[in-house]
Design a protein that fits this description.
The complex is a heterodimer of chains A (483) and B (233).
Chain A (H helix, E strand, L loop, with lengths): L1 E3 L14 E10 L7 E8 L4 E5 L6 H8 L3 H4 L2 E9 L2 E2 L9 E4 L12 H11 L6 H11 L15 H13 L5 E5 L7 H17 L3 E5 L3 H7 L2 E6 L2 E6 L30 E10 L2 E12 L4 E5 L6 H9 L6 E6 L5 H4 E4 L12 H5 L1 H5 L4 H14 L15 H13 L5 E5 L7 H16 L3 E5 L3 H7 L2 E6 L2 E6 L7
Parallel strand pairs in A: 1-5, 4-9, 4-10, 7-8, 8-9, 14-18, 14-19, 16-17, 17-18
Antiparallel strand pairs in A: 2-3, 2-5, 5-6, 10-11, 12-13, 12-15, 19-20
Helix pairs in contact in A: 3-4, 3-5, 12-13
Chain B lengths: L10 H17 L3 H18 L4 H29 L2 H32 L2 H8 L6 H30 L13 H24 L16 H18 L1
Helix pairs in contact in B: 1-4, 1-8, 2-4, 3-4, 3-6, 5-6, 6-7
The chains are: A alpha/beta (483), B mainly alpha (233).
Chain lengths: 483, 233
């Protein structure tokens, strides 16, 4: 898949470390500009390296090279030299050198049950391994021991991510690469993961490379930070020396109805709502919640606490087993509630950005002139007014996320729900998202968002509802600000 | 729910039965036989607990497509015979035969995939005489159907939130589901192949045990082979 320079002219003079790159560059097939340029770095065994940078800066491309997977995962031309564990891997790659955990856990799982998933990894381990003991060890370590017979398809995304990590660590890799591993994890699980990664590098000498947007968490954990910008290394050194970005600022509130209008009739209300998937367990238990005009309500809580289920119930994709959900003026939930999903690739289908964005108002029966006006306004709101004719698939990830938001904003709704709107977004995109939500709430809509990103919650939310095991445990103003 | 005894047959027996049923569904003649085969498979699918929501969704999708299939065969019948009676007398039986063949293959696939874990499939193909790349390809291909069904369901829900209404008589209404499904499956195929390499599944486990054969296995294997003779001969 990858073509390479005919020779490796930049071989290190001395014996190379575990990972050694010299003037490494990568140009994707069909692209005009390289994605990586002039990358030179050495990484020793047991180092904890954090890789940071804005979306599209080349973090994942670099990490795939350092893990020896460029040969199978990337299509393009690698030049310079890359030595992994003393072998020249510029031409050939080095499969089996590193374990990888990607952002989306769903593509990494192959087993039917939790136990089978980890056992599948252990079955690949060579040598004399006590597989039963190892299985217990990894299931215990990630809190999966009580659900070993659960079907993988019934787990929440957070639990799937834990399982993906356990399965990869069960392979006992020499180098572990994690690409935004905490995107779907709650705070305690993310902290647990980083504690575990620290133990792995200290006790077992495993080299750990982590790509992450959360610089604060990364700086606490890493022994070294590599900051990327436009395909080049901008900073390489200890976390203390890395310039920290300013905290995400609360967007300026625009004119409109007062925030959290006291006494206003709620746009969406849930009264004593309970729900269980297939009648098993309890996803939501007696939840009551109301969203007023102009409110931005953040749903927070650990993985599997029922945040996404609540959004799906609010939208009308699910029906409650008990309790009642209603919208202002008795409007059907499917019409009154807009829902923005996490993964933009699951919704984009049209040949142009404009066409994609006008899909909802067209289905809602607006006249052509109003469809065009609503579409233009929504695209302007998210900062994509000049991309009307672009193919949605050619956009960057951040632009796709903004397009999915615009394609909901273009329709008619009174409450906007967003499921993990910050996943995979860099600081610039986050600030843009915060400003857009602030504008929407200022126009009188209610917003309900499920997220693990506490910085984002502090910046935009007017109210924070905390869920645990399907129950509301607190409902209060955010600590440290909000608009 | 306790699964019936026949869901615990040896893996090779299950595979042989699956292949034989596919052979009958694809090549068997006679509408009555095809109808009996489909009914039997449907019964087995629901009694085994293998008919999850995704399987039911796919079956419904196929049933929705039946009118279009019938119309297509009627049109071909009219084009061939130039009469409405000819179109009906030729087109309807042919449409039924075609639909039963497809449903038979689909049901057999759903039943096999629903009753066989990925680990079993991987161990089946991880033989010393099967190249690892071929084994990986086959393992992935067999698992792709249920994964695709789950993905189709999620995409359909997303587009429903955007006002999509599927209309069986307007195939273009399916584009908002089909295009993202195709794109996401292409991405998934790429990412899955990378993960298969990373998790070293492409490399083994080699020569895992295929378990023991009971009397029921031997009897059903013999029956399956015997039922193939009329088709082969």
């Amino acid at each position: 898949m990858v073509s390479h320079s005919p020779s490796a002219p930049h071989a290190p003079a001395e014996r190379p470390g575990l990972i050694c790159a010299r003037q490494l560059a990568f140009q994707p097939s069909g692209a005009d500009a390289p994605l990586l340029q002039d990358i030179s770095l050495d990484i020793a065994a047991g180092e904890r390296v954090g890789i940071i940078g804005p979306s599209g800066s080349g973090k994942t491309t670099l990490a795939l090279h350092l893990a020896g997977l460029h040969h199978v995962a990337l299509l393009g031309r690698t030049s310079g030299s890359l030595w992994l564990d003393g072998r020249d891997c510029t031409r050939s790659g080095c499969e089996g050198f590193a374990g990888v955990v990607l952002q989306n856990p769903e593509i990494q799982l192959f087993g039917e049950t939790v136990e089978e998933e980890v056992a599948l990894s252990l079955a690949q381990r060579a040598g004399d391994v006590d597989r039963a003991r190892e299985l217990r060890r990894w299931l215990d370590r990630f809190g999966l021991d009580t659900m070993r017979d659960r079907r993988v398809s019934t787990l929440s995304l957070g639990w799937k991510q834990r399982l993906a990590l356990a399965s990869m660590l069960a392979l006992a890799p020499q180098v572990l690469l994690l690409d935004e591993p905490t995107s779907y994890l709650d705070e305690p699980t993310a902290d647990l993961l980083f504690d575990l990664l620290a133990d792995l590098s200290t006790d077992a000498g495993v080299t750990v490379l982590v790509i992450e947007h959360d610089l604060h968490r990364l700086a606490r954990w890493a022994s070294r930070l590599v900051a990327m910008r436009q395909g080049r290394i901008e900073f390489d050194g200890p976390p203390a020396a890395c310039p920290a970005p300013p905290p995400l600022a609360a967007p300026a509130r625009l004119s409109g109805p007062p925030c959290s209008a006291v006494g206003a009739k709620p746009l969406l209300s849930l009264e004593g709502v309970s729900f269980a998937y297939n009648g098993q367990g309890t996803a939501l238990d007696n939840v009551s919640l109301a969203v007023a005009p102009g409110e931005i309500v953040a749903l927070v809580g650990p993985n599997g606490s029922g945040k996404s289920t609540l959004l799906n119930l609010a939208k009308g994709l699910l029906e409650p087993d008990q309790g009642r959900i209603s919208c202002a003026a008795g409007a059907p939930r499917m019409d009154a509630v807009g829902l923005v999903f996490q993964n933009p690739d699951r919704q984009l289908f049209a040949h142009s950005v404009f066409e994609e964005c006008s899909f909802l108002p067209r289905n809602q029966g607006f006249p052509p002139a109003e469809i065009a006006a609503r579409t233009r306004q929504a695209l302007a709101q998210v900062g994509l007014p000049s991309l009307n004719e672009r193919a949605p698939f050619s956009l960057s990830y951040g632009e796709k996320r903004r397009l999915t938001l615009a394609s909901t904003l273009s329709g008619r709704f009174t409450v906007l729900c967003l499921d993990e709107p910050t996943v995979g977004l860099d600081r610039d995109c986050l600030a843009q998202m915060a400003a857009t939500l602030s504008r929407v709430s200022a126009q009188g809509s209610g917003i309900l968002l499920a997220t693990h990103d506490h910085d984002f919650v502090r910046a935009v939310a007017t109210r924070v509802v905390s869920l645990r095991a399907g129950r509301v445990v607190s409902d209060a103003a955010p600590q440290g600000g909000g608009v | 729910m306790t699964r019936p005894w026949w869901t615990r047959l040896n893996l090779l027996t299950r595979l042989a039965l699956f292949l034989v049923v596919c052979l009958h569904a694809a090549l068997g003649e006679g509408l009555l036989m095809q109808l009996l085969l489909c009914s039997g498979l449907l019964l087995l699918l629901f009694s085994s607990g293998a008919a999850g929501p995704h399987a039911r969704l796919l079956l419904w999708a196929h049933l929705l497509a039946l009118p279009a299939t019938a119309f297509l065969f009627l049109a071909i019948g009219y084009e061939t015979t130039r009469s409405f009676s000819g179109a009906v007398s030729w087109g309807l039986p042919e449409a039924l035969r075609y639909a039963l063949r497809i449903e038979g293959l689909l049901l057999a696939n759903l039943l096999f995939v629903g009753l066989t874990t990925p680990l079993e499939i991987i161990s089946l193909f991880a033989r010393p005489w099967i190249p690892p790349a071929v084994g990986t390809l086959l393992s992935t291909a067999v698992r792709f159907l249920p994964l695709s069904l789950g993905e189709a369901r999620r995409i359909y829900d997303i587009q429903r939130c955007r006002g999509l209404r599927l209309r069986p008589w307007a195939p273009q209404s399916c584009l908002p589901v089909i295009v993202p499904l195709f794109v996401s499956q292409m991405c998934r195929a790429h990412d899955t192949s990378v993960m298969l390499v990373v998790r070293r599944i492409a490399a083994g486990p080699r020569g895992a045990s295929l378990g023991t054969f009971g009397l029921a296995d031997l009897f059903l294997l013999g029956l399956a082979l015997a039922s193939c003779l009329p088709i082969v001969l």
